[in-house]
Amino acid sequence: MNQLLSTPAKIELRHVTHLYVSTSRAFMAVRDINLRVEEGEFICLVGPSGCGKTTLLSLIAGLEKPTAGKVLIEGKPVLGSSRQVGYMLQQDYLFNWRTIEENVFLGLDIQGIRNRETEDFALHLLDEMELADVRRAYPAQLSGGMRQRVALVRTLACQPDVLLLDEPFSALDYQTKLKLEDLIFSALRRHKKTAILVTHDLSESIAMGDRIYILARNPGRISSEVAVPSEIRDAIPFDARNIPGFQDLFHQVWKEMEVVSDAAKGN
Ligand SMILES: Nc1ncnc2c1ncn2[C@@H]1O[C@H](COP(=O)(O)OP(=O)(O)OP(=O)(O)O)[C@@H](O)[C@H]1O
């Protein structure tokens, strides 16, 4: 038990407060955030717009430095961006003049790790994501869902331990989104990644997450934490939605969201 307690978390935020400071004002985006993500866990962050979800990802990715408190990965302070952390955004940022394969290899170039072995791994991931047939196509020839899969392959090809996913499905149609949830969920499980997903879709957070943090705003803070039961966790997201207990959990998270949303409106 003591040994378990002393093991550093994969990701830990200790009393993290962050202010955005400009010449005219300082704005407190998040206050006193404490969270712990264990290796291999899939965590979802939900909450009203402006509660600091993206700020938390930026702090974990080392793109922002906390004003107070500590951001730790495997017990070590995050000092800047690193290969250990992959960040995938809503927009895919593919280069239209490069083929799919060259877009994926670009990530390896930027990290300075492009070689035969890493290229082969990237091609293997393209295959896993059902993109092998389009490796020589250009982004403009692909659907939105395919482009997001390419963006995921580009991120995974650099072999980060931690994946930060900022609303990666929000621009997609419903059917594509459900299919992509299953593909990404399975890929992250297979490759044993630790992941944090920001989403506005409560059903998605329950279908994909092991745990959900619900945030309130002004300032951004953790309002509550919900553990997803194992029978839902173990199913792929599409099937998870049909498991008894899913709807009850949805109503629980919905109610908690209503509390933080009403508080944000000052009701
Ligand atoms: N660079 C910045 N400078 C000043 N304020 C910022 C900056 N980035 C974010 N903020 C503010 O910090 C707060 C938290 O923003 P953040 O983007 O983290 O919220 P969010 O929960 O991700 O929102 P959304 O759900 O709308 O994407 C917001 O009030 C936002 O306006």
TrEMBL record:
<dbReference type="InterPro" id="IPR003593">
    <property type="entry name" value="AAA+_ATPase"/>
</dbReference>
<keyword id="KW-0813">Transport</keyword>
<keyword id="KW-0067">ATP-binding</keyword>
<dbReference type="InterPro" id="IPR050166">
    <property type="entry name" value="ABC_transporter_ATP-bind"/>
</dbReference>
<dbReference type="InterPro" id="IPR003439">
    <property type="entry name" value="ABC_transporter-like_ATP-bd"/>
</dbReference>
<dbReference type="InterPro" id="IPR027417">
    <property type="entry name" value="P-loop_NTPase"/>
</dbReference>
<dbReference type="GO" id="GO:0005524">
    <property type="term" value="F:ATP binding"/>
</dbReference>
<feature type="domain" description="ABC transporter">
    <location>
        <begin position="11"/>
        <end position="242"/>
    </location>
</feature>
<dbReference type="Pfam" id="PF00005">
    <property type="entry name" value="ABC_tran"/>
</dbReference>
<dbReference type="InterPro" id="IPR017871">
    <property type="entry name" value="ABC_transporter-like_CS"/>
</dbReference>
<keyword id="KW-0547">Nucleotide-binding</keyword>
<protein>
    <submittedName>
        <fullName>ABC transporter ATP-binding protein</fullName>
    </submittedName>
</protein>
